[in-house]
Amino acid sequence: MKESIPTVGTWTNWAGDESCAPRQVLQPRSVDEVATVTERAAAEGRAVRVVGSGHSFNDQVCTDGLLLNLDRISGLRHVDAEAGLVTVGAGTRLADLNVQLARHGLALPNLGDINRQSIAGAMSTGTHGTGRKLGDLATQIEALDLVLADGTTLTCTEADPEVLRAARVSLGALGVITEYTLRVVPAFALRAETRTMPLVQALERLDELVDGNDHFEFFLFPHSEAALVKLNNRTDDPVRLPRELAKRIAEFAENGVFEAACRAGRRFPSQIPRLNRAVTRLMTPSDHVDQSYRVFASRRSVRFTEMEWAVPHAVCAEVLREILRVIDRDHLDVGFPIEVRFVAPDEMSHLSPAYGRETAYLAVHMYRGMPWEPYFRSVQDIALAFGGRPHWGKRHLMEADELAGRYPAWDRFQAVRSRLDPRGTFTNAHLRRVLGPVRDPGSVPSPEDGHGAGSRTAKGW
Asked: Could you report the per-residue pLDDT of 108-153, keeping only the tens digit for each?
């Protein structure tokens, strides 16, 4: 068996504001090697965490134990186009997976606007796209493989739905996910329209815009009266790309000009309202047709930190109005737009923020190097008042005892966690904060619709 590839030094996330110094960082080449190093670390009493691209904005993967990077456990393993199923290594980046699927005439039915993440990182934190009839990415999981602390492999399928529902959005708390079986669809094209709209009109027409488009999202800049709306709809029209010059101008405005505005706002916070209004005036309409995965993804070069809240769809406009009111009242320096997206209910994942209800996701950001906590705390207070749940991959200021009552299947997840990782091998400071310690299995109620622990296979050598 080949040795894993060790790396040393400090690990830092994409945003550059979370870091740790693991005792050991490994890039295993196979599932057998994942099992070996995980079992060894558990026997030595060391924590095990897994990292992909580091695109989470909190300390979710930080550890002083063993940090596993699964970049070498990646790629398409099996394609069944007729059944609409593919098997993929957990370390595969979404950007790479999209290209590989397209070669087979397939696509994921929905995606977020960032494609840097590993498939495991995106799924395990409840990452989502937008579309009222479409669930978050984890709803596309048909099955997955987990390496447990004792080195055995657990295959999670609908044969034991309770374990699978816990594992879809697990925060890495159950074991090391090494492989997914995903439901896919035939490749499709989207007509992508982007235009500005008066914010008042966007909020008044919100249900019409959400219901009338396959994928609707919008961005609103504090201190501005305009919203940028994106209308993405399936089409049989041929690919029709924007002119190269127009594309370059748009990318320069979205990244270069915006970066300059953010830097200016960081240096001169009092000018942020004026800068925001200037940025919205530079936004130009666009209309083109392309393959879905190229429409969904946006190139992001501006670094920031982020908080995101899942609130009931019905209160979305009210929550946004309250956030804008508090920004003005408290003179908060907010140069980033608020991003708003919509998803269907998800009862397939115990810890999905969209569990059991049509959901609007409201994402707020702060440019790197600027104080984020006053703004984020205000947004959190507002979201909580409207029944909000935090996105697991973004910043929030809540702890387990506060979160438990917001997730109807919380105890069901904890029951699976207690069975699969009773010693807390996959727990770090972040998980102790947001999930609490691993409970004694005898203290967690057993759900009526799932008592087994899935199918296990012995570790190979």
From this structure: 999 999 999 999 999 999 999 999 999 999 999 999 999 999 999 9
**Angle CA 124–334–247, to nearest 5:** 70
Q: What confidence score (pLDDT) does residue 254 get?
A: 66
| Residue-by-residue DSSP string for 66-77 | EEEE-TTS-SEE
Its sign, for the CA torsion 338, 339, 344, 347, is negative
Q: Which residues contact 66 (CB under 8 A, 6 or more apart)?
A: 22, 23, 24, 25, 26, 37, 38, 41, 46, 47, 48, 49
The answer to whether residue 450 scores a pLDDT higher than 50 is: no
Token reading at 72:
């070498």
Tell me how many domains the chain contains.
1
Nearest to 126 by CA among 398, 412, 341, 391: 391
- Rounded Cα–Cα distance for residues 280 and 275 (Å): 9
Quote the pLDDT of residue 361.
98
Asked if the structure places residue 176 within a domain, the reply is no
Residue 406, domain member (yes or no): no
What range does the domain containing 286 cover?
189-397
pLDDT at 262 (0 to 100): 95
Report the DSSP pairing between strands 19-20 and 304-312. Answer: unpaired
- Phi and psi at residue 214, in whole multiples of 5°? -65, -40
Residue 89 identity: G
Q: How many whole angstroms from its chain centre is CA 273?
A: 29
208: in domain: yes
Residue 385 lies in a domain: yes
- β-pairing, 76-80 vs 85-89, is antiparallel
- Report DSSP state, residue 184: -
Q: Is residue 376 within a helix (H) or strand (E), and if so which, with residue range?
A: helix 373-385
State pLDDT tens for residues 145-177: 999 999 999 999 999 999 999 999 999 999 999
Mean pLDDT on 393-401? 97
Number of helices (H), then strands (E), belonging to the chain: the values are: 15, 22
CATH of the domain at 285: 3.40.462.10
The Cα 85–Cα 88 span in angstroms is 10
Mean of the per-residue pLDDT values for the chain? 92
